[in-house]
Automatic annotation (TrEMBL):
The lineage of its organism: Bacteria, Pseudomonadati, Bacteroidota, Flavobacteriia, Flavobacteriales. The keyword Cell cycle does not apply. It is a single-pass membrane protein. One of its GO terms (cellular component) is membrane. This is LemA family.
Length: 203
């Protein structure tokens, strides 16, 4: 074998090794970004689960108040069941699925918080209890946690999508099935504050 062929072989081998190193680095970064999105989504779901659990506490609290009619919580219970029935994995974070999830959560939020405000206005003997005050504080904290988790999820999605869509990373992303994820965005009508009394009287 002459020196020319040997030199070409060395160059090709060096290019192949560099390509392998580059490809491995890109792949590992894509995996990390994908895992970050999955973790951020799990945190979103965990905070929504916290709210579901608090709604159960609300039901138990108001059902123990003799003056309060249990039927007024029907919509809250139904909205809770609907919201908890939509579960997404990290591979299902498409715009359509995120919209369905968010719509269900929005309906639950309006129903839940609307009735909480109604209780505070119309049942002072209930809102004066320590249990109800503690529950109210937990709800406020939970809503803040949900907002933080959604913001962090959107940050993780933005970082992931930048990685999988930019050249040359997108070449390997397409080969290995790393797809863009859908961020949270406000649902239609979210810019208008709901009427608490109207929400309560829907049922």
């Amino acid at each position: 074998m002459n020196k020319g062929c040997l030199g070409i072989g060395v160059v090709i081998a060096a290019i192949a090794v560099l390509a392998l190193i580059w490809g491995s680095g890109v792949y590992n970064k894509l995996v990390s970004e994908d895992e970050n999105v999955a973790r951020a989504w799990a945190n979103v779901e965990a905070d929504y689960q916290r709210r579901y659990d608090l709604i159960g506490n609300l039901v138990a609290t108001v059902e123990n108040a003799a003056e309060f009619e249990r039927g007024t919580l029907t919509d809250v219970i139904e909205a809770r069941a609907k919201a908890s029935s939509i579960n997404l994995t990290a591979n299902e974070l498409t715009p359509e699925n995120i919209q369905k999830f968010q719509q269900a959560q929005n309906e639950l939020n309006q129903s839940f918080l609307g009735r909480m405000n109604f209780l505070q206005e119309n049942y002072p003997q209930l809102t004066a209890t320590e249990q109800f005050r503690d529950l109210n504080a937990q709800i406020e904290g939970t809503e803040n946690r949900i907002n933080v988790s959604r913001t962090r999820y959107n940050e993780a999605v933005n970082q992931h999508n930048n990685k999988v869509r930019k050249v040359p990373n997108n070449l390997l992303a397409n080969i290995f099935g790393f797809n863009p994820k859908a961020p949270f965005s406000s649902v239609s009508g979210a810019e208008v504050a709901p009427s608490v009394r109207d929400e309560f009287n829907k049922g």
